[in-house]
Every structure is written in structure tokens, then in C-alpha cells.
Amino acid sequence: MNTEERKYEEALTQLETIVHKMEGGEYDIDELAKQLKTAQQIIKFCNDKLTKTEAELAKIMSAQTEA
Questions:
Q1: Phi-psi region of 27 (alpha: psi -120 to 50; beta: other; left: phi over 0)
Q2: What's the predicted TM-score (pTM) here?
């Protein structure tokens, strides 16, 4: 799934799965490197999504106080 189409909750679930498997030692070294890169992309997506949502909420709140 493309990170642009992914929902925050789905991304967070995928990240939790990766972390759980890493902690459980389920990945060999090659897969671990691949999954770490995926986890980094998911974290960036989640951070970007939260930042965007926070800005949208601030804009809505600002518009309400001006009205």
C-alpha cells in the first residue's frame, strides 16, 4: 500500500507489528534492515499526518474564535 493512501491507524498497526517482530527476534539481519527502513517511512508518515492534522485543527479553532 502506498503511504499516501494509508490511514494513520493502519500505519500505526503496521508499525506495531514490525516492532513486535523485531523485539521477538523474528527477522534475520537482511529482513531486519528492510523492516527498519519501512518502520522509518511509517514513522515519518505518522509524524507528517499528525502535524497536518494539528495545523488543520488550529485553523478551525482560529476561525471559530474570529467568528
A1: beta
A2: 0.78
For residue 27, give the C-alpha cell.
527477522
Q: Tens digit of pLDDT per residue, the chain (67 long)?
A: 454 556 999 999 999 999 999 999 999 999 999 999 999 999 999 999 999 999 999 999 999 887 6
Distance between CA atoms of residues 5 and 38, nearest Å: 15
Give the DSSP letter of residue 36: H
Residues 16/47/7/14 CA torsion (nearest 10 deg): -20
